[in-house]
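Input structure tokens:
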């Protein structure tokens, strides 16, 4: 347990801070940002499955929607919750690869700005928020290794936490009004909303678990190699 805390104390601290301040103005912008990422995943899924995106909206009350035409409805519907959880888990998993982690953070910021310019009505609150949040991620990614690592950990933790929060509130309590309900109605089987929500939650939680487990094993192996005595040099 001590070794786990030593390796993951930044993630643990971020989790405690986020949960302690969850309903405060400090965490509110990050919660809205996770909704924005959720909608970005819907848009990305629509585009990559041959569809067209017509509009992306993210509101300050943490609601949002992505309007699209065509594409694969099952993939588009699943991408929001599952994609956000996977991205959060991957940001945490990539902690040992500083350069890649910084590039990933910069990539999220770039996509945020691009999608806002392309699909969000100009000069609205959500347009400005997407531009500012994207610019902030780019600035953090380019600041320094320590700052970018801290930013990636915080964003990763927030994405994972908000995915769990969504599963508890939206998917488990009122799934018929969420992406799970949309997919179930698309198939003409509204009663599947709960099973779909459960599968999404299980897949996402498993991804988070695997990311943390793999990161722990990789760091533990790195610690062992660093402490292993080097063989004497031959004369």
């Amino acid at each position: 347990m001590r070794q786990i805390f030593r390796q993951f104390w930044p993630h643990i601290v971020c989790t405690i801070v986020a949960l302690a301040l969850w309903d405060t103005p400090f965490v509110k912008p990050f919660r809205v940002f996770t909704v924005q990422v959720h909608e970005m995943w819907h848009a990305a899924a629509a585009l990559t499955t041959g569809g067209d995106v017509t509009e992306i909206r993210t509101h300050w009350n943490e609601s949002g929607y992505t309007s699209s035409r065509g594409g694969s409805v099952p993939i588009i519907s699943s991408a929001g919750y599952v994609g956000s959880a996977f991205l959060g888990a991957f940001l945490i998993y990539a902690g040992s690869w500083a350069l890649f982690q910084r590039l990933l953070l910069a990539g999220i910021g770039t996509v945020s700005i691009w999608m806002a310019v392309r699909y969000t009505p100009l000069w609205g609150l959500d347009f400005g928020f997407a531009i500012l949040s994207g610019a902030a991620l780019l600035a953090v990614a380019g600041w320094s290794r320590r700052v970018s690592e801290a930013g990636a950990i915080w964003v990763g933790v927030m994405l994972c936490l908000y995915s769990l929060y969504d599963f508890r509130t939206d998917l488990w309590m009122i799934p018929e009004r969420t992406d799970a309900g949309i997919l179930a109605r698309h198939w003409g089987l509204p009663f599947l909303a709960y099973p779909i929500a459960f599968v999404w939650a299980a897949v996402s939680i498993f991804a988070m678990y695997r990311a943390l487990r793999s990161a722990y094993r990789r760091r533990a192996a790195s610690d062992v190699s660093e402490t292993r005595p080097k063989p004497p040099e031959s004369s």
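The mean pLDDT is 86. The first strand starts at residue 52 and ends at 58.
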